[in-house]
Amino acid sequence: MASIPDPSQLAQGRMLSVTQSILAMMGLCFVVMLVAIDQTVVGTAMPNIVAELNGFELYAWVATSYLLTSVITVPIFGRLGDFYGRRRFVVVSIILFTVASVLCGMAQSMMQLVLARALQGVAGGMLVGTAFACIPDLFPDPRVRLRWQVMMSTAFGIANGIGPFLGGLLTEQYGWRSVFYVNLPIGLLSLYFVYRYLPLIRHFRQDSVRLDWQGALLLMLGLGCVQLLVELLPQYGASTFMVLLGVVSLAAFVALAHWEQRAAEPLLPPALFANPAQLALLLMSAGLGFILFSLLFYGPLLLQGGLGLRPQTAGLLITPLVVFITVGSIINGRVVTRLARPNIMLYLGLVLLALACTGMVFMDKTVSHWLFVVYAMAGGTGIGFVMPNLTVFSQEIVARSMLGIATAMLQSMRMVGGMLGTAVVGTLVTYQYGEGIRARLEQLPADLGNTLEDPQLLMSAAQQAQFLELAGQQGQSGQMWLGVARDSLTHAVNIGMAITLVLIVWCFYWVRKVPPIRFGRMAESSQ
Predict the structure, then answer these.
(1) DSSP secondary structure string, 342-392?
(2) Closest by alpha carbon to 295, among 342, 236, 353?
(3) Considering only CA atoms, which of 202, 206, 204 is closest in space to residue 3?
(4) Using one digit for the tens of pLDDT, what is the confidence trace for 123-151?
(5) Residue 515: count of CB within 10 angstroms of its CB
(6) What is the CB neighbour count within 10 angstroms for residue 401?
């Protein structure tokens, strides 16, 4: 087991030998791969999961249940890691994440899968809240840290590069359950390296820490009600139940803001939100999460359900998006510290992301696959220019005593954005598909029309075969009507993706609030 170094002696990584640094970073790299592969393979497999387990109405919940529980656990364990050291929490979270992955693979219904994903989100929040904050612990100097983060970026790139293709291949060859079981070997490898080589570093020594459980419950209540409100509003409209959900959510957030001002160890430290620069970074992280998770979850739906591509082909086309997140991160790491104005990388990243999202809005069956790949490359590079800088800039702005919670809050806000993104885009897609398809089914028999109204049909080869047979028996062209349904779903996803452009404008507004960054403050303060 690794020794426990004094954090004051870790400036510029001097306490760790090169070998120990590599082995410790390998453990963190496997952790990154565990989370990254899970995020990318699940999106590719989702159309097939829905086809087998039914319940298209719960499509977004497979993502948002994970994100909702992660949002709560990220800041809790980010703060606990500041006081008790992060290593033990990383070990526990790896075990819990692996067990939850097995439960996801064993799910027999969409509701069981949603609940298992919620448990997986608890573990994922622990991982994100602690593992990512280990790097500035080990390497306080941002220049040294950025060089070591190449390992993390490479691991992230490998996981993202193989994730969509692996998800499509496993789904097509072995069934969707295999995409969850693939976490087992990665989890065991990460557990070995983290337990054996990652040092336990404690910045503060404190006998007890008061957890802000009241704040966590209020946050979960508020976000949960927002999630339900977004999901159910098209179905129930301005009903009493919807109004009640809105009132409860607003009351929860007001109570949360009031409570966090009084809490001894607040879940959401008011000091972070009082700092205009840090607030801008947090809100940009939420916007980036909205865009990223919308692309990851509804890009495969567009390709498989809307354009009728096989899971393996859809995985190949999505792969450049996630691969070029790493490419962008590596390019950013090599140039950002050499720029007189590092903030320019944020602007450049948002421009590339705007180009990609605009392309997705106009994507249909007439657009070549190569053009989709170009959009995906631009979007991935843009995210790679923005996402790591939000963390590094934040770590240069906040005090060292707030390092863990600031890093965790950025991840948490990205998950909040991702939760809202999958919910809002999912609601729009479902509503627009229903409106679009119903307007074109008046000349069809009722049984055929009802079948087409469920977009689940477009993800299941077996259901499509049954529809074609039934349509033939009634003298209808089944292939033509499947084409109509695919066009309606494509148009619905296009409209859903248009919301991402609004979020890019939001990010452009807040990036102007970030002051010019000067690297080196953290290293100077630790010497």
Answers:
(1) TTHHHHHHHHHHHHHHHHHHT--TTS-HHHHHHHHHHHHHHHHHHHHHHHH
(2) 353
(3) 202
(4) 888 887 777 777 777 776 666 666 676 67
(5) 11
(6) 12
Q: What are the phi and psi torsion angles at 442 (to 5°)?
A: -65, -30
pLDDT of residue 234: 67
Per residue, what are the HEC states of 120-131?
HHHHHHHHHHHH
Which residues, at least 6 apart from 88, have a Cβ–Cβ distance to it below 8 Å? 200
Residue 61 tokens read as: 């919940």
The amino acid that residue 280 corresponds to is: A
383 and 349 Cβ atoms separated by less than 8 Å? yes
- Which pLDDT score is estimated for 203? 55
DSSP 291-350: HHHHHHHHHHHIIIIIT---HHHHHHHHHHHHHHHHHHHHHHHHHGGG-S-TTHHHHHHH
What does pTM read for this prediction?
0.72
Which amino acid is located at 315 in the chain?
Answer: G
Q: Which residues of the chain have pLDDT under 70?
A: 1-17, 40, 140-147, 149-150, 153, 156-157, 160-161, 164, 200-210, 234-235, 399-404, 443, 519-527
User: What DSSP string runs through 442-461?
Assistant: TTS-HHHHHHHTSGGGGG-H
Contacts with 331 (C-beta within 8 Å, 6 or more apart), sequence order: 381, 384, 385
Neighbours of 502 (CB within 10 A): 12
Give the pLDDT confidence score for residue 523 in this predicted structure: 39
